[in-house]
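Lab notebook, bench 4. Still working through the backlog of constructs that have no structural model yet. Next entry is a single chain of 257 residues. Request: give me the structure tokens for it.
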Amino acid sequence: MIPLSAITKAEPNTTPLVLNHTSSFPSVTVSFNLGNNTSMSDATREVGEMQQRLGMPSTVRGFFAGTAAAYQTSLASEPALVGTALLAVYIVLGILYESLVHPLTIISTLPSASVGAMLALLLFKVDLNVISIIGIILLIGIVKKNAIMMIDFALVAEREHGKSTRDAIFEACRLRFRPILMTTMAALFGALPLAFGTGTGSELRRPLGITIVGGLIVSQALTLYTTPVVYLFFDRMRLRFQGKRSTVLHAGTAEAS
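Model written out:
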């Protein structure tokens, strides 16, 4: 019999009771909280820079988990989500108007809403987070109704009353101003409790309300001016294209004859 002391040595020490694993590899979780006036994007960037300064060996790999990982995943998918939403809006409006041009006129109202949302976030010193991005996506469905109401009236005035494009869109802006203002104010006042509310969970609701209120205010001030300009621009482009095409067709017919 060989005594145990011949091959081992006993000494008191500490050891972890549980060894965490991630994907079959031992892992250690390091948590952090955001400081005052610090956004999640700034925190993740500083953590990444700190990881590079430490010079960890290649066998050690670090990655974000939890809220930070969800934030990075959401930001990575947001451009595709916004693009898909715009594509869906364009397809639906194209089917509705049976045109490839009028949906572009309606979608042209969206940049002003996005600018208003960004300005409101800067004014209230709120970060552009996932909730505020959701608010910008909601503005896609709210703001475009201004252009829809004007273009619907202008098309009816052109087709049924024989008015010119300029007179039709001018009359649409003048007669549709009241319903556009009423619907915008209704949506704006509905978002005010979200923007200025307090209490439990208000930090989650405020970015949504601020983006909606800012986007509606700026879009209401600009779309009555930008939509007629875009509408007349596309109409002139259509007439110019039709004129060139008719010239080509007449030239081809003359050569054939």
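Notes after review: Residues 20 and 144 are 51 Å apart (CA to CA). The helical segments are 40-54, 67-97, 102-107, 110-123, 130-161, 165-175, 177-196, 202-256. Flag for follow-up if needed.
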